[in-house]
Structures are given as structure tokens and as C-alpha cells.
Specification:
The complex is a heterodimer of chains A (about 400) and B (about 550). With about 400 residues, chain A is mainly α. Helix content of chain A is about 70%, strand content about 5%. In chain A, strands 2-1-4 form a three-stranded antiparallel β-sheet, with no helix packed on it. The radius of gyration of chain A is 22 Å and the shape is globular. Chain B has about 550 residues and is of the alpha+beta class. Chain B folds into five domains: about 40 residues, no CATH class; about 110 residues; about 90 residues, 2-Layer Sandwich (TATA-Binding Protein), CATH 3.30.310; about 110 residues, no CATH class; about 110 residues, no CATH class. Chain B is built from eleven helices and 24 strands. In chain B, the strands form six sheets. A six-stranded antiparallel β-sheet of chain B has the order 4-5-22-23-3-24. In chain B, strands 6, 11, 12, 13 and 21 form a five-stranded antiparallel β-sheet that branches. In chain B, a hairpin with a 7-residue loop joins strand 18 and strand 19. Chain B is elongated and about 130 Å long. Classes of the chains: A mainly alpha (about 400), B alpha+beta (about 550). At the A-B interface, helix 10 and helix 11 of A face helix 3, helix 4, helix 9, strand 9 and strand 12 of B.
């Protein structure tokens, strides 16, 4: 399948281009001090490469669409990749409005984490089940992803604001919380690293366990620290599990997922430890000087603007289009499915954000914390709800 | 009512913070918007008198103030948010999986989630979203929406309608964006005016006092979107009445014709065929995924005919059925007739339609048939008399046989795995022989039977699960959602920008206010004063310090 090969090559190309663009955005640090709004060469090159990367990813999308016959937004890999693409698009739009190159230094790496994270899930083209065979699949999913992409920019601006503004000279609750946010991002990197490592080694251990009345076989691609509950290892010369996943952890393949979480924590924590060993500072404290030249007002403005733009888009895609489709597919536009509820929770949250900001004057730091938490809710809805609370939107 | 007269001569209603005409802060009322200790004035509602901030005597005043507070509103949102999250910890009652040990919530939650599950169930969280307290919470949010909006909209509308270009100096220099230029020529002022007009500002000039305004309609955005939300909440109340909303679930066998419940006997449905198709595993696009995860269905479809009983209006009359619709219902393609919509919602493959048995002598190796009979599993008869004098009675019928604690029982009422206890009366014999028969089971209880029963043939059918809906509230929800979107876009994608230029001596005072996007208004000002002697405004609210 040539189309499919081309498609994955283009995705890979886009990823590399985003990486290169990040370096150019990083190079704008020094020039920024003299005049923030003046065009810089490095910034121009950076945004050009970003746009080329975005086009490459667009080619990935189109070719995969042609290969599969449906819009590639139907499983975890495809959706998260698409979300990454929307984040880049949102960044490009905000860039041309504010010409703020430095945003790219933070936005692009996090986008790359998302795309890399996506490719840890099965990348096979999966056929559509009847309920997904509707044009509303494209309409609903693309609008939601675009809304979330724009809200992502508020997260980036928020986290930059916090790194810039929070006092790092002494240890405080605030800078510990900020550090926890950064540590969480590193955990994702840890997950990507450890999964890739064992994938390259082709590691495989098969377990058999009871689920209800059925006997189920599951394959671990990471050495089993936690076996499935009441599971037996079938593969010889694989590492013996240390303990069993507790029985109260429910859901499809809870053991394997729990094991992956443990590994991500181990790898992420080691990675974090190594970084701390070299920097001898909190990561927040290490990055802070880079942001000294950035005006906090601008960050605050971008953070708020992207919520103001993203909130209506999210409402339209995540609630209204979702409801219309649900009405057509299931005859009820709202069914309190966990994914629906979490979309509502996200909506409530950003509604509270806007009210606090407009009427209670929550600007600056408070607003930045909210932007970070808001995106945390979006990620929770994407990852935890899909993998753990799975309802109708179950992808994996 | 106490009126307050400002030094500019304007008479303001009680509770006004900034004079409606000239914007001068009114002494004694500055605490209302928290202006006393800040350099800038709070421009949120242009300093108008709001009922909630002015009167606080009667009970009604207190209730009004309570609900008009955004703080209360945000708290309600946050509580609703947390409550909604709680409901997803474990599945809601309607989402108890079909493979659960028991679908009885009293059993299910404790069985699967232990003590936490039991608490969850006992607190009623398994039906959280229809609980009285969740409803009240949403209703409170609705009340808060109405009161908040009224409390602010009315005075704000009045204030913005009659605003003057001439403003008091303290109003101007306490704006976030402000500059003072000592000497400015008239040409420069005219240039700025022309530039602002070019940037699509509405410019008004009252003897040299200039007000440039743009995007005022965005100020109504929040009120418009709140109206949309209120319509949605009202629609939700309407939907809870059976007048506006019908919901029926029906199982129809292939070949069966039945009256559709919920249509007062007016409509009948016939299921001609149920089709389930799967994705081709040889399709090279999907072969890998199908290998990994097993077969994937590609289509659920019921071919139906809907009939209308034209005799329905006459009570007790025989139905006269007139086919009005022949259609294939699929997922995402419901069928519509009259005011009803039918959705493909479920299916059951391979139920037994009928089974044919024969009788033969137990020790006949050829099992030569002595007679056959056919049981219609939808309506089994009590006694079957065979031509050659045999008589078979059905003692027990288990449509969906399984063993429950060592006892035979039926899991459902649907013939998915039929089993029978049958009595065989040979010709001219009073003493019956007992046999137990099921799929793959043929048990002779005593071991002394002379005659044996055997299954010769059976027919299968599929059953379609269809949902019937009437929902007159949908248009209301659509209108509410549309109004909400219009309002939220109006409020979010446009900004209300105002620029004041007032003369002072030979120079001018330049001040600007916007409700959002200060970056944008600064750019506007920067462009407008280009090539003039007017100083650029300074942002008096820097977040840095």
C-alpha cells in the first residue's frame, strides 16, 4: 500500500520539521530583547518551517483518508494526531496575529509530545462500525479538535506565564505545583521513550486471565510489573510479574494499562531525576530566565484570547454537533455517556473561567492556573475517559 | 428613590458609581465596584446603578442580590461541574454492561466495585443526573442566569445608549489606556478623527470632545447567549412531559407484524428482514486491524413496512391496514413517518422460530419416524396430537434455557435457547414417558423410555430492536443552541472599543477602554495617531508589578 506508506512518511516528516522549527524559535530568544514585535530572521524561518510541517501533516491526513476511505479521525492514534495538527494550526493563526515567536518554543514541543504519544497506539486503519458511518463523524470530530487546539494555546500561554511570574527563589506551594505540571509532561515523554524502547526490542509477554465468564488473552509489550488480576503468564523466558493488578480496577485490559502507567512513572521519574541532576534546579526555575524578556501582559492576553476564540468552537463541536449526531444515530441527543459528561465538565469549566475573568477580575496568575487546569480536563477526557471510563466513545 | 446630581448637571439614579453622563466617580459609591484604593476605575458595567448593589432591605432584595452575584453563579457552575464528574466514576444505571452478573443496581455496584460501589449506589449516584438535587442545581443555575442578566443588562443598555463624548478628567485619567499631550494642533485632531473613521469607528464630536466607538453590539453577546441557555433549560422541562416526548423500545421478529406501542394503535410495523453485515476481512485496507480485534460489523439494517390503520378512529373496528412506508432503517439513517421517528437500536441474531420433532422407537438404530410435530416457539400449544395416535404434551418450556443453581430456568422470555420437558403418550396408553429436550440435549429421565423424541428441523429468525421517538422539543433546543452560539460569538469575536479625546488647555486627554483584546485597541490607536504629535497611550495596568 503505497498511499499508506506515503502517509506515514509525511507524518514523520512533519514531526521532524516541527522539531527543527522549535530550534529556530529558540534562537529568537536573544533578538527578542531589543524589540519584541520586530520580525526576526530566525522567527520567520521558524514559522515557515512550521507551515511546511503543517502542510506535510495535511498530506498525511489526505493520503490516509484516501487509503482508508474515511476521515482518519476514528481511533485514538488518528484522533490524537489530528489534535496535534489542530494545535499547530491554532499556533500558526495566533502567531500571525501577535507575531510572538517565543510561543513556538513551548507550543511545538508539547504538540510533538501529543503526536508521539498518539503513535504509541495501534496505527492500523480500522474499519468503521455502523454508528460511526456518518458525515457527522468528520464534522463533529474536526470541530472538537479545532476547539481543543485553540484552547491548547491558552494552556501554553498560561504555563509560560506561570514559569515567567512565579517566584522560584524559595520553595513554595505554587512553584511545587508548577513543577508537578512540568513533571506530568515529562511523564508523557517517559511513556513514549519506554514504549518505543521495548517496541524496538519486540518485547512480548502473553497473559491469560478471567474476565467475567470468559477467558481472555492479552499481550504485554512492556515487561509485566503488574500482571492482570488472576492472570497466568503463558510466554516462557518473559519477566515474571511482581504483583497482580488489584481486582477493583475494572475495564477492558485494566492490567496491561495499569502496567503501562507504572512504567511511564518509572521512566518519567528517572528522566526527571536526570534533568534535575544536571540542572540542579527546579525545571521551572531553569526555564524562567529565558522568559524574562517576555511581557506578562502579552501572555495574559494570548491566554485569554485563545479561550475566547476556542470556547465557542468547542461548544459548537463538542456539544451542539455532538448532540445533533447523537440524535441521528441513537435517537437521543444527550445520554449522559461519560465522554458527553466530560465534554460538559470542560464546558462548565471554561464558562467559569470566563465569568471569573470578566466579572471577578481573575487576571494574570489565577487565570493562568485555570488555563492549565482546563487543558488538563481536556486531556483527562481524551486519555482517561477513553481508556478507563470507556463508554460509547471507546477507542482502545 | 434618592437621585444623585453630578457636577455636570446630570441626575443619576441611586447606586450609580460613575456618572452616566460625564463618568465622574460619584463620591460615597466607590466601594460598590471596589474603586476606592485602585488607580484605575472599574469599567465593568460602566459604573451604572445595579439593583442588586443598591437595595438590600426586603427578602426579595436579598434573594435578588444573591442570585445576581456572579460569585454565586460561578459557585453553582463549579458545584454542577464536580457533581457531573462524580457521576462518571462508575457507570450510570443505564450503562450497566449487559455481561454483568446482575443488571439489578442493588447487586451490580457492590458486586463489581465493592464497598465504594455500594456507597455509590446508596447515595443514588447511579442515577445522579436525574436526581432531585442535580435538577435543583441546574434550576438554580437557570435562575441565576435570568437574574444576573436582568440586573446588568437594563442599566448597561441605558448607560450605553445615552453616553456623552464629554467626560470628566478623572474618568479619563483613570482608564487603563491613557495619555496626555500638552499641545495638539487642530489638523492633528482632524487626522486622528479621519483615521478612526477609516478604521470603522463611529465618531461623534461634541464641541471638540470626541468619542470613537466600535463594536458596541458585542456587549449584548452575554445576554443573548444567556437567553439561548434559558430556552434550552425550558426545552428540557418541556421534554420531561409526555405531551412533548414519547420514547418506546420495541422488539420485532422477522416476518412479524405488530402494532407500534405509543401510537394509540394507529400504526403497525412489519419486519421483513434484519441484516447484519461485517467488514470484509480480505479487504487489504482493514485486514490487519480485523486480525487484531476480530470481525467488525459494517451495517445493522432492518427492512420495514409501516402500515396505518385507516379504521383506527372507530373504536373496536377491525383494523384496515394501509402500507404507508417501506424503508431500510440503518444506524444513522432513521425512518420517519407521521410525527414519529424509528431508529435501529438493537438486534438479536438467530432466535428460534419453530422446531420440528419426530418420535421413534428408542432401540431403532435407523430412528424411523413414527410421526412428527412442529412447535411454534412464539405460541407453543399444550398438546400435540399426532396422526398415528401419539400424543405429546408440553410440561415445561424454557425459551432461553440455562441452569440456575442446579435448577433449569429461562434467562429471558425470548426463544434463544429453547428447551422442553415433554410427555409422550403412546397410542392407547395412559402412562406417559418423560423426556427432556433442548439444543444438544436429549435426556431420558428414567432410562426406561420405549420411545424417543428427536429434533428434525428448526427455523431461525433475527429480531430487531427499534426505538420510536416523538420529540417536539427538538426545535426549541435547536433555537436555544443557535441563539447561544450567536450570542457567544457576538460577545467573544467582537469587542466593544471606545476612544475618548477631550480637550484640555491647548492639548488633549486621550483615553481608551475595551472589554477585551487590549492589544487590538492599542494597535488601532497607534495607527490612528501616526504622524501626529499626539502621544501614544500608556497601559496603566501592567501585570508585572
Amino acid at each position: 500500500m503505497d498511499l499508506l506508506n506515503l502517509s506515514s512518511t509525511m507524518l514523520y516528516t512533519a514531526f521532524i520539521l516541527y522539531l527543527i522549527a522549535t530550534f529556530f524559535f529558540g534562537a529568537t530568544i536573544r533578538q527578542e530583547k531589543s524589540d519584541r514585535r520586530k520580525k526576526t530572521k530566525a522567527g520567520t524561518i521558524g514559522i515557515t518551517i512550521t507551515i511546511i510541517g503543517f502542510i506535510a501533516q495535511l498530506v498525511y491526513l489526505v493520503t490516509r483518508w484516501m487509503a482508508s476511505g474515511h476521515a482518519p479521525v476514528s481511533n485514538m492514534f488518528e484522533f490524537m494526531t489530528f489534535l496535534g495538527m489542530c494545535m499547530v494550526l491554532a499556533f500558526i493563526i495566533i502567531y500571525f496575529y501577535y507575531r510572538f515567536t517565543f510561543l513556538g518554543l513551548f507550543a511545538l514541543p508539547i504538540t510533538m509530545v501529543i503526536i508521539a504519544y498518539a503513535s504509541m497506539f495501534p496505527t492500523d486503519i480500522s474499519p468503521l462500525v455502523p454508528s460511526l458511518q456518518s458525515h457527522w463523524l468528520y464534522i463533529h470530530v474536526t470541530t472538537v479538535a479545532l476547539g481543543q487546539g485553540i484552547l491548547f494555546i491558552s494552556f501554553v500561554a498560561g504555563i509560560m506565564y506561570l514559569i515567567r511570574q512565579i517566584d522560584q527563589s524559595v520553595r513554595t506551594t505554587k512553584n511545587i505545583w508548577l513543577e508537578i505540571v512540568l513533571y506530568t509532561i515529562i511523564l508523557c515523554v517517559g511513556f513514549i521513550l519506554i514504549t518505543t524502547t521495548f517496541n524496538l526490542m519486540n518485547y512480548n509477554a502473553t497473559f491469560e486471565y478471567q474476565e467475567g465468564n470468559q477467558s481472555v488473552v492479552t499481550e504485554y509489550h512492556l515487561p509485566a510489573i503488574a500482571a492482570p488480576n488472576e492472570g497466568t503468564l503463558l510466554t516462557e523466558d518473559a519477566m515474571q510479574p511482581w504483583f497482580q493488578t488489584p481486582a477493583w480496577m475494572q475495564g477492558a485490559d485494566a492490567g496491561r494499562k495499569f502496567n503501562t502507567v507504572i512504567w511511564s512513572f518509572i521512566a518519567g521519574t528517572i528522566l526527571y531525576g536526570v534533568i534535575r541532576l544536571f540542572t540542579r534546579k527546579r525545571i521551572g526555575a531553569k526555564i524562567q530566565p529565558l522568559l524574562k524578556s517576555v511581557k506578562p501582559d502579552l501572555l495574559d492576553e494570548i491566554m485569554y484570547r485563545s479561550v475566547a476564540i476556542g470556547f465557542p468552537v468547542f461548544t459548537l463541536g463538542g456539544l451542539i454537533f455532538a448532540a445533533i449526531w447523537a440524535q441521528i444515530a441513537w435517537g437521543r441527543f444527550w445520554g449522559w455517556d461519560p465522554k458527553e459528561v466530560w465534554a460538559l465538565v470542560t464546558w462548565f469549566f471554561y464558562a467559569a473561567f470566563l465569568h471569573l475573568r470578566l466579572s471577578r477580575g481573575w487576571h494574570g496568575e489565577r487565570s493562568a492556573w485555570l488555563a492549565v487546569v482546563g487543558f488538563g480536563i481536556i486531556m483527562f477526557n481524551l486519555i482517561v475517559v477513553n481508556l478507563v471510563l470507556a463508554g460509547l466513545h471507546s477507542y482502545a | 428613590m434618592k437621585k444623585i446630581k453630578c457636577e455636570c448637571g446630570h441626575i443619576n439614579p441611586e447606586g450609580t458609581v460613575l456618572c452616566e453622563s460625564c463618568g465622574k466617580p460619584i463620591e460615597g459609591n466607590q466601594h460598590i465596584d471596589g474603586n476606592e484604593n485602585s488607580k484605575l476605575i472599574n469599567m465593568r458595567y460602566d459604573g451604572t446603578a445595579r439593583r442588586s448593589q443598591t437595595y438590600n432591605k426586603s427578602i426579595i432584595d436579598k434573594i435578588w442580590s444573591f442570585f445576581s452575584s456572579v460569585k454565586v453563579g460561578v459557585w453553582l457552575i463549579v458545584i454542577a461541574l464536580v457533581a457531573s464528574m462524580l457521576g462518571t466514576v462508575f457507570p450510570q444505571e443505564i450503562y450497566i454492561p449487559a455481561d454483568a452478573v446482575s443488571r439489578d443496581p442493588a447487586v451490580f455496584y457492590e458486586d463489581r466495585y465493592g464497598i465504594l460501589g455500594l456507597i455509590y449506589y446508596q447515595l443514588g449516584f447511579h442515577n445522579l443526573y436525574s436526581s432531585w438535587w442535580y435538577m435543583i442545581l441546574i434550576a438554580l443555575i437557570g435562575i441565576s442566569l435570568v437574574i444576573c442578566s436582568l440586573d446588568r443588562f437594563v442599566p448597561l443598555y441605558k448607560a450605553l445608549k445615552k453616553q456623552k463624548a464629554k467626560r470628566h478628567e478623572t474618568f479619563l485619567n483613570r482608564q487603563r489606556l491613557f495619555s496626555e499631550t500638552e499641545t495638539v494642533s487642530n489638523e492633528d485632531i482632524e487626522t486622528v478623527k479621519a483615521n478612526l473613521k477609516k478604521a470603522r469607528y463611529k465618531v461623534s464630536d461634541e464641541d471638540g470632545h470626541i468619542l470613537a466607538e466600535k463594536g458596541r453590539f458585542s456587549r449584548w453577546g452575554p445576554y443573548v447567549n444567556h437567553i439561548g441557555l434559558i430556552i434550552i433549560l425550558l426545552a428540557a422541562i418541556l421534554r420531561s412531559t409526555s405531551l412533548m416526548y414519547t420514547d418506546e423500545y420495541i422488539w420485532v421478529r422477522e416476518g412479524e407484524q405488530m402494532v407500534i406501542p405509543g401510537t394509540s394503535g394507529e400504526f403497525y410495523i412489519e419486519n421483513k428482514d434484519f441484516v447484519m453485515e461485517t467488514h470484509d476481512e480480505n479487504d487489504e485496507r482493514f485486514s490487519q486491524a480485523i486480525q487484531q480485534e476480530g470481525t467488525v460489523p459494517s451495517n445493522f439494517q432492518t427492512d420495514i413496512v409501516v402500515y396505518q390503520d385507516t379504521n383506527n378512529s372507530i373504536p373496536g373496528a377491525e383494523p384496515v391496514l394501509d402500507p404507508i412506508l417501506e424503508e431500510s432503517i440503518q444506524m444513522n439513517q432513521p425512518a420517519k413517518f407521521d410525527k414519529y421517528t424509528l431508529y435501529q437500536s438493537g438486534y438479536q441474531m438467530n432466535e428460534f422460530t419453530n422446531m420440528t420433532f419426530k418420535i421413534h422407537e428408542t432401540d431403532d438404530p435407523d430412528e424411523t419416524s413414527l410421526g412428527t410435530f412442529t412447535i411454534d416457539l412464539a405460541n407453543p400449544e399444550a398438546v400435540y396430537e399426532l396422526d398415528n395416535g401419539f400424543e405429546v404434551t408440553i410440561e415445561q418450556y424454557y425459551p432461553d434455557y440455562h441452569m440456575n443453581n442446579g435448577q433449569p430456568a429461562s434467562q429471558t422470555n425470548y426463544p434463544r435457547n429453547p428447551a422442553f420437558v415433554m410427555m409422550v403418550y403412546p397410542p392407547d396408553n395412559e402412562n406417559p414417558e418423560i423426556s427432556f429436550l433442548g439444543i444438544g440435549k436429549n435426556i431420558d429421565a428414567t432410562g426406561e423410555n420405549d420411545y424417543k423424541l428427536g429434533i428434525v428441523d428448526f427455523d431461525l429468525h433475527d429480531v430487531s430492536g427499534l426505538t420510536l421517538r416523538v420529540d417536539y422539543t427538538l426545535p426549541f433546543f435547536m433555537v436555544g443552541a443557535a441563539i447561544f452560539m450567536i450570542g457567544v460569538i457576538q460577545g467573544m469575536y467582537w469587542q466593544h472599543r471606545r476612544i475618548w479625546i477631550n480637550p484640555k488647555g491647548n492639548g488633549i486627554l486621550l483615553a481608551a477602554h475595551t472589554n477585551k483584546n487590549w492589544f487590538g485597541i492599542s494597535k488601532d490607536i497607534e495607527k490612528s495617531i501616526e504622524n501626529t504629535s499626539i502621544k501614544m497611550v500608556e497601559d496603566q495596568q501592567e501585570l508585572e508589578e
